[in-house]
Design goal:
By secondary structure, the chain is of the alpha+beta class. It has one domain. It has a three-stranded antiparallel β-sheet. The model has no long low-confidence stretch (mean pLDDT about 95).
């Protein structure tokens, strides 16, 4: 898959979001370094982080 993506002038970057534990895939233009697409999106990661904080707050209140 990496070779296929590179043949189109793109790079795939894989990481794990530290807060949510979600796997993140970024498609980046090889020549400019511009972010083409990210899965999950920044918006979804932000929502997941906020949900995690809310969940932690609820657990803390119950303890």
């Amino acid at each position: 898959m990496q070779k296929f993506v590179q043949s189109m002038g793109r790079d795939l970057n894989f990481s794990v979001d530290e807060t949510t534990g979600y796997h993140v895939v970024r498609v980046v233009d090889q020549s400019t370094g511009e972010l083409i697409r990210q899965l999950p999106s920044d918006e979804l990661l932000k929502l997941a982080r906020e949900f995690e904080q809310l969940q932690n707050a609820l657990v803390s209140q119950r303890a």
